[in-house]
Amino acid sequence: MTAFARAKEAITAIEEAERLLSQAKDALRSVAAQGDEPDVAGRILAEILKQGGSVSKHELYRLAAQHGMDRRGLGGFFRQSGKTSLYALPGDRVLITPYGVEQARRQVERERPLEYGEPEVNLARVAEPSFAEDWDSEEDSIYDTA
């Protein structure tokens, strides 16, 4: 094989590697973009949970519009196969299911992470005042050992 043929083969291999690399980059960008998309269904379920777990169908339509979802997309909440997030009650109300509550709570936790207070380093500050005041009382003397 001549040097020219080997160079041509190397260029072809590099071009193929660049093409595959470009495809991989596009796939990664697509996955990253999906992770940034808001969870509209979770937000709607969180709103329903905040309102007591049950809303009217009209209120459900209003929530869907508020979060940018078309009414036609609400059917996924009521699907019969798989996990059902909402249950249609007789009449005009819908009720959130245990699975829907789980999804709503996850959304609430994403929006508002758990907050921890500062730890109390001096526990005497949080002690019950009456306990601190009667430490040496006659009443508690029966527990003293000599």
Overview of the structural elements:
The protein is 51% helix and 7% strand. The protein has helices spanning 3-36, 40-50, 57-66, 98-111, 129-133; strands spanning 54-56, 86-88, 93-96. It has 5 helices and 3 strands. The chain has a 3-stranded antiparallel β-sheet. It has 146 residues and is mainly α. It has 2 domains: 1-37; 40-111, Orthogonal Bundle (Arc Repressor Mutant, subunit A), CATH 1.10.10. The protein is flat, with a radius of gyration of 31 Å. The mean pLDDT is 79.
Question: What tags apply to this protein structure?
Answer:
single chain, 146 residues, mainly alpha, Arc Repressor Mutant, subunit A, 2 domains, 3-stranded antiparallel β-sheet, 3 strands
Number of helical segments with 4 or more residues: 5
By CATH reckoning, the class of the largest domain would read Mainly Alpha
Give the percentage of residues in beta strands.
5-15%
Main sheet specs: 3 strands, antiparallel
Which outline best applies? flat
Rg, Å, rounded: 31 Å
**How far do the termini sit from each other?**
102 Å
Q: What's the CATH architecture name of the largest domain?
A: Orthogonal Bundle
What's the number of extended β-strand segments?
3
Strand numbers in spatial order across the main sheet = 1-3-2
What portion of residues is helical? 40-55%
Assembly type of the chains comes to single chain
* Number of structurally distinct domains: 2
The ordered string of helix (H) and strand (E) elements is HHEHEEHH
Mean pLDDT: 79
Q: Structural class, please?
A: mainly alpha
Here the CATH topology of the largest domain equals: Arc Repressor Mutant, subunit A
